[in-house]
Amino acid sequence: MSRSRLAAITAILAGSCTLAACADGGGSAAAAAPSLTTSVPAPVKDVDTVTWNLPPGEPPTLDPAQSAIESVSTPLANMCEGLFSFGPNYERVPALATSVDHPDDLTYVIHLREGVTFWDGKPVTPDDVVYSVKRILDPKLGSSWIGWAERLRSIEPTGAHEVTIKLKQPDVLVPNFFATPAFDVVEKAFAESAGRSFGTAGHGVMCTGPYKLASWTQGQNITLTRNDAWWNTQVKPKVKNLKFTFITDPSAQTAALDSGDVDGQFSVPRAAHVRLKDKGNLLFGQSLSPTFLSVLNQKGALSDPATRQAVQALIDYKGIIKSVYQGAAQPLRALVPPAAWGYGKDVYQQAYDALPQPAQDLEKAKKLVAGSAKAKQKIVLAYTTAIDEESRTATAIADAASQAGMHVQLKPLTAEQYGAMFASPQARAGVDLFLSSGYLDFPEPLTYYQFFTTGNFYNFAGYSNKEYDTAIRTAIATADPSARAREVTKAQAIMAHDLVNIPIATQYVNVYYKAGLTGLVPRQNYLYVPWATTLGGKG
Question: Which residues are the signal sequence here (predicted)?
Answer without folding.
Answer: 1-23
